[in-house]
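Final report, Chapter 2: Outcomes

The project's central promise was a pipeline that accepts a single protein chain and returns its three-dimensional structure in a standardized token representation, suitable for archiving and comparison. That pipeline is now operational. To close this chapter, we reproduce one record exactly as it appears in the project archive, with the input sequence first and the structure output second.
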Amino acid sequence: MNKVKHIVLPSLIIAASLFLTAFFRVIPASRLWNNYSVMYVQKEAPQEKVISLFSEYGVEDYICIFNQKTPLAVPSQSAEYSLATLSFSNYLEERKAYFYDYSKNFLIYYVPEKYEGKLNQITSLLNSEGIKSGINANASYPWLAFVFCLIFALFLTWQSKYKLRSLLFNFVPVFFTFTMPFYTVAVSQCLILTLSFFAMNLWQRKGAFSCILKNSTFCLLFLLSFVIVLFTNLKVAFFYILSLFCGISLLYLYKQISELFEKKYIFQPVLIRSAFFIRPITKKNSKIFFYCAVTSILIMISALISARAFNFSSDFASEKILLPSKSAAKVTLPGLNDYILWNWQASTFPYKSLNTSQEKESNSLIFPRFTEKNGNIEESYNSIEYNEKFRQNVIDSVDDFDYKSIELLLKKQGLYKGAGYSSSGSSSLNFITFVLLFVGTLVPAFLYFKYSSKKVKKQENK
């Protein structure tokens, strides 16, 4: 019964870890808006040229500042429409920010993603004419990073004396790299794979765990690996710890199952020498550090190529362009809630008494209507109430506009609270990321030269 517990508990940890990591996996994407590409063109450029290029290349249903109107679902001759700009809210002015980058140097166009290929042609043409422009596009999955990590894991399994247990543990870092597709994560997992390769030499020896904790090289590899994922993302760091528990649980489960089978035999071999009398890293197997460094270099090169493809294709790549984004960390642009409130004020403003203070406004309003019937003027009363039905009617009305409004974009994104600004293209290789990749490459290279040097060989023979 006790053995069953030792099998069931680690099995549950493994299953939960893999499920949670897969369920909360990171999907690489740098698109600022769902189903829309964001095209930005320098403000000084003749915008008639951009509009004509859209027409020439068949780009339709785009949203820009030049095709916006007052977003009210009432006739343009009505009192509500005429007095809309006099309402108390600054919404009409604030919504203009959606059509500029943060520095107000570029005009923004929101274009359905199906035209992304044509936008690439348009921006290339504009840039060739000296008009700065670009688009925000999807980040592709970093397959090369995952493939390099997978190849390295399979290579270590093949090189290991303990192939089955190595295969079991190595599955976890590879799976983690697949679900958390960052170049830095791939490098960090290469370090963990390297650490596990050497640690396997202490398997089931007395004091193995203590020996691993006291080994400065093992501690260096682990700390560096953890620091890399910590600077990558806090969410990634959490699942990194979870993946370690998963890997350790896999090895523990393997050990328990192995002991169940070994009990069938009369003779059971026991390792005599403790872990402290074993050198897990020798001159002969130190070449693994070299292969780790080479793999990390390949991952870093692929990251540089990817960053160049996204950020260095134009002559203004060094500029940090902040564009309106639905997923920005800080909300600074108005949302649908602001639009609904403005709509209420615009709809009720013509019927409010000028003697009523703003503080005394209520959520309902009754106002007279005068109609001519049979030569007589008849008075009737209409009422309007600010409630959920009113809110929903306002949101539904944006579909009936005779133009593509920014409110339509907000509705499709479900942005009631608003949006903010994000950098164009999340695949950019910033300075911190480059440093992490470089250090992740430099350390195993240093360890290779350390353990493969002649000086170390002499010390080992003593």
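Archive annotation: The CA atoms of residues 79 and 322 lie 38 Å apart.
This record, like all others produced under the grant, will remain available to the consortium after the project formally closes.
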